[in-house]
Amino acid sequence: MARNSFPTGLTERQLDDLAEEAVARLADDLAERVFASPPPGTGDPAARAPRPVPALNRLRILAHLSRAIERRAHREAADAVRLGAGYPQLGEAWYITRQGARRRWPGLVFAAHPSTRPLPGGHDRNLGVNTDPRTYSVLLVEDDDADAALIDAALNEHGTARDIHHVHDGVDALHYLRDPGTPRPDLIVLDLNMPRMNGRELLAVLKDDENLLSIPVVVLTTSSAPGDVSAAYHQHANAYVTKPINLDDFLQAVRSIDAFFLEIAAAPRRRP
After folding, report:
1. What does the angle CA 224 – CA 228 – CA 234 come to, to the nearest 5 degrees?
2. Are 109 and 162 in contact (CB under 8 A)?
């Protein structure tokens, strides 16, 4: 474990030992309070004697402590963001990478009020040729909630009018698209690797459906395999974009998709 640059005279091993002792004391104390105490109103002195706590009961207490730590960590991360921290600092504090912090606390940095980290590389939204003032609807088909939060933030930067509906797989996407009570999206942003119905299967269905085939589809995925790229275009995807690993590049890629398909390119007229 790499040592973090935090002001302490203790070694990482010493910090680990202190944390182990603190958790053990807290777990034992809670286990005794919850499981070892006799039921209220018990008159038998033998029944009032402390009872040993089984290992499974201590494990149950540790499960509650683990969830409490996760909730407390989220609150502390949010406080750090409000004071100006970004994902690099959150990752360093939690002993993970910046990308790991982004996945653990998706959208936290961009959701701060006031924002502590504006989306990078802002540009003038008034340069596009599409001047239609209405809200544009995007169907985001993405099973990774962290990536979905970033895509949502990038599409909605600077208060632009984007109505984004997020589903986690192709089955839910088809339910949404074929529901007569839902609006037809102007753009579908599609991941490939998803449970139940993946992006390849959904793309084939979309382009074989007379009512859906004209909706532009951009594949946004981690795969850069030539076979996946060729298959997507063979199934008439409108564009194929590989998700960059770098956060700023990822946001720029989403912003470029948004700028071209929703502001520059002429879109098919919505059907009633």
Report:
1. 135
2. no
